[in-house]
Design a protein that fits this description.
The chain is α+β, with helices and mostly antiparallel strands. It has one domain: 2-Layer Sandwich (50s Ribosomal Protein L5, Chain: A), CATH 3.30.1440. It is built from three helices and five strands, in the order E-H-E-E-H-E-E-H. It is globular and about 55 Å long.
């Protein structure tokens, strides 16, 4: 990578989007409230409820059914979450040898899925009614995956050794 003349041209982490997939909560308001409390504890921010736009009979999905909670983190909350993710949660994963560098999209954003929300220290194990996955997207201003990998490596992201 060529050294940029302008320091503002360096890649930066702009936002972190956390999706918390819901399944089987269409009928139960208690389960929906419990899932909202879990994602609020994980991120420290109130989530937005995403609903189905269309009915799809193959997936037994009706228009207006709750699909997921979404949280967009920026600024100090984003860096607090990223620090916790890199230093606490990812090393606690079972058989963890680093994250693959194949999860970049073409624009320099990184996607990862944590299959179990119990890795987060804020979750009370006694109050969990269902294991859910947490999908995390790290959005950067990098124009290529190699620039984004350099940025995330500098922030302390644990990539797998090749």
């Amino acid at each position: 990578m060529k050294k940029p003349n302008n320091p503002l041209a360096l890649p930066r982490l702009t936002k972190v989007v956390v999706n918390y997939r819901l399944s089987g909560v269409e009928d139960s308001r208690e389960a929906l409230a419990a899932a909202e409390a879990e994602i609020t504890a994980i991120t420290g921010q109130k989530p937005k409820l995403c609903r189905a736009k269309k009915s799809i009979s193959a997936f037994k999905l009706r228009q207006g059914d709750p699909l997921a909670f979404k949280v967009t983190l920026r600024g100090k909350r984003m860096f607090d979450f990223v620090t916790k993710l890199f230093n606490l949660i990812l090393p606690r994963l079972r058989d963890f040898k680093g994250m693959p560098d194949s999860s970049f999209d073409g624009q320099g954003n990184y996607n990862l899925v944590i299959k179990d929300q119990t890795y987060f220290p804020e979750i009370n194990l006694d109050k969990i009614n269902k294991i859910r996955s947490v999908q995390i997207t790290l959005n950067t201003t990098a124009s290529s995956p190699s620039e984004a990998k350099m940025l995330l490596s500098g922030l302390g992201f644990p990539f797998a050794k090749n």
